[in-house]
Hints:
- By secondary structure, this protein is an all-alpha fold.
- Helix content is 53%, strand content 0%.
- The chain has 14 helices and no strands.
- The longest helix is centred in the C-terminal third of the chain and has 20 residues, at 224-243.
- The radius of gyration is 19 Å and the shape is globular.
Amino acid sequence: MTTTATQDRPGPESRPDRARTPGAALAVLPDVLRAALAWTDAHRADFALPGDVLEPHTQVNATLKPLGELAQLGSTIRRTTAPGTPEHERAGDLVAYAWEQVAAGDLLLELLRAEPFAAYPYEIYAAFAGYGLRHEGFEALARPLTATRAWAHTEQHANRQLGLVNSERRVGVVTHTDAGAVLSRTWLGGLSEPWTFEGPSGYALTHTVFHLTDWGRMPDRVPEKIDGYLRTWLPAWADGCLESGQWDLTGELLAVAASLPGPAPEPLLDAVWPVLADVQHPTGCVPETGPPAQDTAAPDPYPFIDCYHSTLVTAFAAALSLRSLRSPGQTDGSAPGRERRTA
């Protein structure tokens, strides 16, 4: 386990394999979700794209990536929460804001024209398309591109390729390869030795599950062997993340736990969520790593770039956890896309 925090870490009493209060997750989750979304909404201007976003020198990871994550996680929260609730409405407003930032898809079309075989414009578009926001021009250009041999044979890590397959499902085109074959080549699909879990493999694992389940919407896509493997080892991995102050990865592991088919892993959720709730700042933000800010009155205790993702992930994981605990086995009923090779 990669560690970054060596002080002010939660004590042994907070470890998920050593303490659990039944119902503890449900006691904190509504407030955690509400606060994380409130912080995100209050900082929506920080997700705004700069005027030179289409220029070659623009840093994608500091501009388009945060906005794409806002669209992806916001749309999942919207689908997962009950209509009419403040969380449902706020998540919808955030997705609408992200759609405005990409000029209702026009900007993504320009990105695709500039980099026709780059995956990220397509994946960002797929986050909106899966939500029902479409752009005819983008899809008209993407359709022949995604049918080429070059698209099908772009060299990527298996986890990234699985993400592209899920994006194709969302857009509604024939997938360029079989998801099961790609899954078998991932760290998680190979049921890797659990003691080899560290930061990079941890994030690869969580995103494998997100792509496989369409960000928690389709838990039944998780094969039985992987379900059993995750239920066995998630508590130990979460324990390590809590000890080392890896709050962002902790949130992603909680989202994975809430994306499994069948009964929610209540002992894990009850043990870990109260710890993450304590890390959350009163403003609603959550740091990615390290000791939490001690100034509870600070309006912005962390730089935006150091907390936006972990805060979004916390909201995302909280929404999925609430669904998992309240309505086991519930999905949004969407049908998976057609899957067969194009070449």
